[in-house]
Structures are given as C-alpha cells and as structure tokens.
C-alpha cells in the first residue's frame, strides 16, 4: 500500500476469555488482500498481571464478536 491509498480494514473478535480477546483483522486495497493479522489483546494492571476485561470495553467490542462466541 502507498500513502493515500484507500484501504479497507475488517476486524472481528474470534474468541473471548475473562482477561483477553483474540481478534482477526484483514486489510485490503480493492480486491487485493494486503495483510491478515491475528491479534491477542490481554488486559493487565499496572504490575503487568492479567485482569478482568472492563465491562464498558467488553460491551463496546460485542458488536464485533463472531457468531460462534457465546456470552
């Protein structure tokens, strides 16, 4: 991709635990897939220990959950 290219970014949550989200992200230009990313987001406290996902963030991510996720 080049500066000022129109890119499409599709993201969705594949799985959820009490402390993390596993996401897939696809970036494309037109019909060409440029990259597929697999992202693990872990919520941690100031000491680096995993903590429960804050409810407001969980609710904001909910529209991006895959149909297979049961909450």
Largest sheet: 3 strands, antiparallel
Assembly status: single chain
Spatial strand order of the main sheet: 1-2-3
**In angstroms, what is the radius of gyration?**
15 Å
What fraction of residues sit in β-strands? Answer: 35-45%
Instruction: Please give the alpha-carbon distance between the first and last residues.
Output: 37 Å
The count of DSSP E runs of length 2 or more, i.e. the number of strands, is 3
Q: What is the helix content? A: under 10%
Could you say which overall geometry the principal axes of the C-alpha atoms support? Answer: elongated
How many helices? The count is 1
Question: How confident is the prediction overall: mean pLDDT?
Answer: 90
- The computed structural class is mainly beta
Helix-strand pattern: EEEH
Which residues form runs of ≥5 with pLDDT under 50?
A: none
């Amino acid at each position: 991709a080049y500066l000022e290219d129109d890119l499409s970014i599709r993201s969705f949550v594949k799985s959820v635990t009490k402390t993390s989200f596993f996401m897939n992200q696809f970036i494309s230009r037109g019909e060409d897939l440029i990259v597929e990313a697999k992202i693990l987001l872990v919520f941690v406290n100031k000491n680096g220990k995993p903590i429960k996902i804050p409810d407001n963030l969980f609710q904001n991510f909910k529209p991006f959950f895959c149909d297979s996720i049961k909450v």
